[in-house]
Amino acid sequence: MAEFKKVAEIIDGKKVAGDIRKELKREIDEWVQNNNNRAPSLVAVIVGEDPASKKYVENKMNAAKEVGITSKTIKLESSATEKDILNLINKLNKDDTVDGILVQLPVPEHVSERTVCNAVDPRKDIDGFHINNMGKLCVNNETFVPCTALGVMELIKRYKIKTFGKNVVVCGRSKNVGLPMAMLLHSDYRNELPGLEATVTLCHRNTPREELVYFAKRADIIISATGVVNLITPDMVKPGACIIDVGITRIQTEDGKTKLVGDVDFDGVSKVAGHITPVPGGVGPMTVAMLMKNTFQAAKSLKGTT
Amino acid sequence: MAEFKKVAEIIDGKKVAGDIRKELKREIDEWVQNNNNRAPSLVAVIVGEDPASKKYVENKMNAAKEVGITSKTIKLESSATEKDILNLINKLNKDDTVDGILVQLPVPEHVSERTVCNAVDPRKDIDGFHINNMGKLCVNNETFVPCTALGVMELIKRYKIKTFGKNVVVCGRSKNVGLPMAMLLHSDYRNELPGLEATVTLCHRNTPREELVYFAKRADIIISATGVVNLITPDMVKPGACIIDVGITRIQTEDGKTKLVGDVDFDGVSKVAGHITPVPGGVGPMTVAMLMKNTFQAAKSLKGTT
Predict the structure, then answer these.
(1) Chain A residue closest to B128 (CA)?
(2) Tetrahydrofolate dehydrogenase/cyclohydrolase NAD(P)-binding domain: from which residue to which, for each copy (chains A, B) (predicted)?
(3) ipTM, 2 decimals?
(4) Catalytic site residue A33?
(5) How large is the average pLDDT for residues B147-168?
(6) Could you tell me the pLDDT band of residue B6, with boundaries at 50, 70 and 90?
(7) Helices of type H across chain B
């Protein structure tokens, strides 16, 4: 006899990201044709030979092509100096045919990531990592929001997850995911960049497990971005809660192969939660789609046609 | 027979602020004498006739005098345009005899507070309200931290309140207190601007009362900056917790006089808490002392002698 269980609705990031790319394609085509504009353009800078970085950049370039954004990848040797990178960024900043610049992180250890992020013209900073844009995010001014945080926000909106006055636990305090996430979630909706009005608890590596459980049990939404496999287990999830899994870790399976998993015990938690994102196919594709959105935004702003 | 109760230790902000002013006075005298520098200098801009603003600026000017900072207040009519204010700020930005600039908030309604805050040279922005400095705070770079948040941090340090892995509830999400507070509290201590490694829950006007109670009961530290009288009551405080009251509200007493109170039911909560700040005499004086610290910092940075 079949077993019937109420299981969480899967938040299909892959599908939503596809929808967004289609929407963007339409908007970009229209913008180009109606205003006689050149296509928006994106340059990715990659330093060194990290295979994961190469794969990420490749995905971004494919998405760009799909939506009608011209793109180019510039590769520098891992021996490139900070000055080499800054010179290149400076050239791209001045180049009127470039709308969006992304420097794929991480950069080699002898280069300051912060210096590199702050070197990108804030108007071309489609990753939203420049301190200027982070400051704008703080005060809820319109800006480039880091793509993963923006992607999660978009999923929350499209799946009509309620946030006003709700409790959210964010696990992980990274500057590109956890922190901007907390910023968007807690703040006032009556802003240039509207917030989601939730009560936010920001947990991290120094949050004791029992405290995380105390907060998670009360959470209407849990967003986990830590890279800790099985951090979120069914016993700590409130029935019906929305679980967003930003973690991506490659693990070895029993048969010697590898697979990607998130921070969440998906099988267990999906029997308790109301909504859940899978890994892969959840947040990942949204990050790339949002990068395209930000690039188009940059093109429009630089052209003065927002 | 006398009743013996264990009551909270009072965090004496007035005394600590006095200590800090004395320390600063010594440091500034030394810096001026040893380097043949002119005294650090501070200009306050006040627009309109708000009596509270006038009082605040007066307090700041008195503190400046006490620690050996030259200060000046420039008053503009409430009819001054945004352009008038920006012109003045621009002049002060260029003036080499000015180290710190503060525009007393609020500005009149026809003026954009954000535009004014962003007009101050970030190197002279002793209030830490420029988006550039807020962005630096986000990524834990050395910067001017908004004075009230810096003052609370200093009290926590001087009273040796533990924060590592502890739970903190911040009530109020203002950009000058609640948000920077949350930023300092949650972040990693291994940074240029070291964080306090706490788990932070940021509550605000749309946090339901019962949820606030849930979080507060588990909190090792509660920081309330809302202006809601009696928001924090004894039943929601964990025995031994540290209570920091940033609220200031003027209320009418039964005899028709007025007095200043905070967000915390002081009499009730001090019977449960381990530490508590009074209002007045708690956080208030610290804000002014930290402004002096930031001004001295600005003078040193501009002179290149940090």
Answers:
(1) A135
(2) 146-301
(3) 0.96
(4) no
(5) 98
(6) confident
(7) 13-35, 51-67, 82-94, 113-119, 131-138, 147-158, 178-186, 209-217, 266-269, 283-303
